[in-house]
Amino acid sequence: MSSAHSSEIKSAASAPAFAARSSEDESRLKLARRFFFRHPGMVRLGIVIVIFIGWEIAARWFMDPLFISPPSRVFSSLGSVLDTSGVPAALRITFFELAVAFLIAVTVGLVIGLAIGLQPFARRSMMPIVLLVYGLPQITILPLFILFFGIGPASKIAFGVTHGVFPIVITVVAGIQNLKPILLTSARSMGASRWQLLRHVIFPHMIPSFFAGMRLGMSGVLLGVLLAELYVSTAGIGYFTQMFTENFDPTKLFGLIAMLAAMAIILNEIVRRAEVRFSRWR
Amino acid sequence: MARRSERTRQLASRTVQIAFLLAVLLLWYLATTFWGVNRLLLPNPVEVWEQLMEVLRSGNYLPDLRVTATEFVVAFLLSTTTGTVVGFFASRSRFWTRVFEPLFAGIFSIPIILFLPLYVLFFGLGLESKIALGATISFFPIVLATIAGFSNVDRTLITAARSMGASDWLLFRYVLLPAALPVILGGLRIGFTICLLSILGSETIASLAGLGHHIVELAENMEMSRMFAYIAFVVVMVALLNAVVSHLEARGRRRG
Amino acid sequence: MTAGDVAVRIKGVGHQFGEAGETQYVRALADTSLDILRGELLCLIGPSGCGKSTLLNVVGGLMEPSSGSVEVSGHPLRGPRPSEIAFVFQENALFPWNTVEENVRLGMLFQGVPKSEHEPRARKSLEAVGLADFAKHYPGQLSGGMRQRAALARALALQTGILLMDEPFGALDEQTRMILGEDLSVLLSRTEKTIVFVTHSLGEAVFLADRVAVFSARPGSIKKIIKVDEPHPRNPSFVTSEKFTELRNELYALLHDEIRKAVSETAPTRNGAGGAA
User: Which end of chain B has the least Cβ crowding within 10 Å, N or C?
Assistant: First the structure.
């Protein structure tokens, strides 16, 4: 800082007009810096833009077009990706699989979670088993799922469900467990029946945890379904990723993956917003 | 009465757990031996066990294990070094934390395995693509944990150390690092597991070698018992590794 | 105060936790007998661990005593009796996901109050505690004092004859306690409830109670009952009067030794070692 100051003095002495301009620039720079400091979001955006520009330059002029494609070409070719016969259908089916798997995971997870969480003995005996199974690397049995359920949507949905159901069960049980006992005592002292306890005390308390679990469940479902889709190379998304890879068509491959990523982001965002909305009292 | 009932309760739940697992095993055996479930779908547990023993004895798993292990070790080393270094520097100021943390968290929220085909296109079907993807995916939990660990060090501790004249290096070595270590170790444990699962996953989807790939091969050849044996092998290995890592993490936490 | 009939008759109630010989064994309450008169405000005061909260829970039907029995309005007590007994706890027992008004109405729903009554009763009790403007707020948005007012409103809306309060102001600061104590006195002079109030504070006991039951150290039993002959609503100036100071001193004298005893007792503790923590 002090060296900059002294250089300013030196330049002020030697070239008055130049010095005047540079001090103006300095204050403008300070303002800009202060602005950016208050807006880390803008800096983040700037970084992302710089990355995209770097990608564009590298892909366009420095790298083999067989392996990498600049973002400009990727975005302009999105249309052609969708024109590729079978791609829109594959995307639609994938979305369908995600939605169905999520719904099943949520329903099953809620039911199992309630069954285990509400009964202390069930929780003590079954939770360790749930956690044990949850910790297993499910990816190893993906080929098995395909053998059992075929290459159609059923296996993808099933694999998504097995990934998504566990976080939901775990968070539902946790939501029931960390209910302060005083709340149950208080309700009982006012004469609440078992059903009233469930509906007015346990359930509303468990809901924010349930929604947090749904967020994790959605991540799980996304992972499971997409893994299965990528694995099956004879139909669906996996077929096209395989095709684009073998044909060394990074443009279309990037495009397809970008669309899937967008799907994932949107679905995650929906569940996240729902969670925020239903956890207001927290 | 309180203590006796606590012990009986524990005993009761343990019994239920063991009974449950035994029941599953029993059902499996009965289904394939007597109830005519198609052996092409579900192999006999006895055969699976025999295959497993044979695999272990013959060392048939070794070449694939070597591939998977190599991929994993290199990927994890890469992600650990880059993750901790980037995480540390991102945590140096509130501003940079607020810039980078949401960026990393955002990227991590989508299944990055989705980019596997891109990595395969770029690196080929060999080890490089798996290593690159494994490193990429496990980078995020590590960098996020590092940022969290370093930026949440109690300000009072830093002030106290500075007031006693601690230099940057001393501050790092004796205040920042020990304070942040538990969180970072937690992130490393998550990164470990995620890296391992990503490697297995990418081997399953697009590979020419490795344990994940071997299982796929067995599935394609409908060698069910052997496939189940390999699955069991991988599952046990992953469980063991996880247990070791958790233990190390707990030890690290206790000291810190 | 009318020499009314007995609202609650406590007969030889004693309670212990755990079995004799176990490390968890604690004899919380020694044989206690007491008649609580209808319309009076009785304070239970004593050193920590003397069993006053245990006794309150027994009287409310939330706990079955190891020995002895409780009769409420002439009928033996076998469990919570929401139609006659309402609670205000020290810990915040408001449901955080419901607004203040919803909390009050929920209490009535549990008790079985007809739906048509919910709104008018809720409004009345919230006004009585001064929270009419905060009906639509969530407990998380209120201060500690306001939360306890809301808990009191919920209990009042149940229109029970008996109100049991377990250190309701215990978690609040001194100034809030003072205000709430005065407001409580005003409120209760208007109703004819029988109130049992557990507290640690000597001043609070003398200010609020018609009678103060002083407990000995664990295992607690009633050492002495002191009468406070002063009409409700108690004027804030009562606190500075000579009568107040005398009574407070009497309480202090009774309690001081018991408190010392409670802190240094060598009765079995959790880890088997005696002495103060």
Answer: N
